[in-house]
Amino acid sequence: MGKNKVRRYRLNNVQVQKLGLEPNESNRYRLSKEQEIELLKLKDNFDFKTETKTNDYKPKQNIFTAVSPNGGIMNIETYCKHYGLDFDKVRSFKLVSHTGIPFYNIAFYEEQTDNHLNIDFDNIFKNKVTPIKYEANYFGINEALFDRLVYTDVHIGMNCNPDGYSLYGGVWNEETLNNRLTEMIQFTLNKKKSNELHIHELGDFMDGWDGETVRKGHELPQNMDNQKAFDVGFNFKVKLIESLAPFYDVITCVNICDDNHAGSFGYVVNQAFKSFIELRYPQKVKVINQRKFINHYQVKNRTFILTHGKDGKNLKFGFKPILDTKQIEKINNYINEHYLRTKDSIIEFCKGDSHQDIFDCSTSQTFEYLNFPAFSPSSNWVQTNFKKGKSGFYFFNYHEKTKSIHPFTFKWKN
User: For the whole prediction, is pTM greater than 0.70?
Assistant: First the structure.
């Protein structure tokens, strides 16, 4: 530790002017040699002090090598996992290799403080989001390991009857969307068996951007502009959590952000939601916005492999609703690559996209293959090319070796 003594004078503006200087902050502290001599002559009339500045030199920290045991360079996610660092809090990183020992220079997001306590959330959103309140008592029910809510393909902004002549009609707007949200929240509370909730949203949350899918070249009939769709989508997500948060101790939300309709627009909505809701409930709610086409999450003795089923760029044909040998091989490759196959773990591969309600728990001996129905009604294109279809969501209670399955189907309303 070294010390560097610096003589600095604290002058008021009148004293600075007497020295013939401009009365600004800089001149109150910095003097030339001649001015210092003049000052010493007048020192009886001036207040001054000598400050001691201390230069602290931190000892060199241990460097974690980025070289993996097999000799290659670890990616940032593997690096964080290897050294017990929180990858979700990585703000930026750079691989430093010129030192002889390659390592990552990482900047982390700062720890959450209590600043949120000074924010009047209720006043900010009083005209936007009103949480649904219930008189029934849903507290203290903890008979299951955890609960799980799964919904997909909300397609906010979709116009399912653009010219008034679609085969089965239908209305899909902000009002009908929120009516279904209310039903989903009430059903969730009615089936609640744990104080821990996992919410998985499997993609295509937004219908498109500027009337096209994220892939472009595929025009979509829509009844909202981008700004309106953003507001409706954001409010949907916030209202869901605001309504359920009083009844759960822990809520984890996973949102798929690589799909063929919403893409970057879906990520923007979900990231805004994440920023707000984690500030609102820093100890209760965690949001994970999945940007990989396929990723997995382990909860207790369950492993959930989540995907929309079709991505925003590479796949011409996504995962089919019915398993075939090629799909089984692809999923097994993913399971083996990430060492997910253990004696006690049960693996569920979960997808949306197909808008079909098909659970296959027997074709593969390794994993369950679960297709979830769309939250939205069928588009005009689906009605014309396929059928009227049905829409809904699923709720689960997970126990040590079993799970209770609760499907919900929305009524078709013209």
Answer: no
Among 335, 339, 400, 324, CA closest to 366: 335
Let me know whether 342 and 258 are in one domain. yes
User: Residue 231 is encoded by which pair of tokens?
Assistant: 């507001």
Taking only the tens place, the pLDDT of each residue in 293-310 is 999 999 988 999 999 988
pLDDT band of residue 366 (cuts 50, 70, 90) is: very high
Query: By the 8 A CB rule, do 219 and 110 touch?
Result: no
Whose tokens are 């241990």? That residue is 62
pLDDT digits (tens, 9 = 90+) for 129-143: 666 666 555 665 778
In a domain, 329, yes or no: yes
CA dihedral 297, 152, 88, 304 (to 10 degrees): 0
Transcribe 53-120 into DSSP letters: EEE--PPPPPPPP-B-TTSSBPPHHHHHHHTT--GGGEEEEEEE-TTSS-EEEEEEPPPP-GGGGG--
Q: What percent of the chain has pLDDT over 90?
A: 40
One domain for residues 267 and 358: yes
pLDDT at 56: 43
Domain that includes residue 15, residue range: 2-55
Burial code (b: 16+ CB inside 10 Å, e: under 16) for 150-174 equals bbbbbbbbbbbbeeeebebbbebeb
For the chain, helix, strand, coil in percent to 5 are 25, 25, 50
Please list, in sequence order, all residues whose beta carbon lies within 8 angstroms of the beta carbon of residue 283, skipping any fewer than 6 positions away.
none
Which letter does DSSP use for residue 362 in this model?
A: S
Please tell me whether residue 244 adopts helix, strand or coil conformation: helix
d(CA 346, CA 342): 8
Residue 277 has pLDDT above 60, yes or no: yes
- Mark whether 174 and 86 lie in a shared domain: no
Residue 414 falls inside a structural domain: no
With 80 as the cut, is the pLDDT of residue 32 above it? no
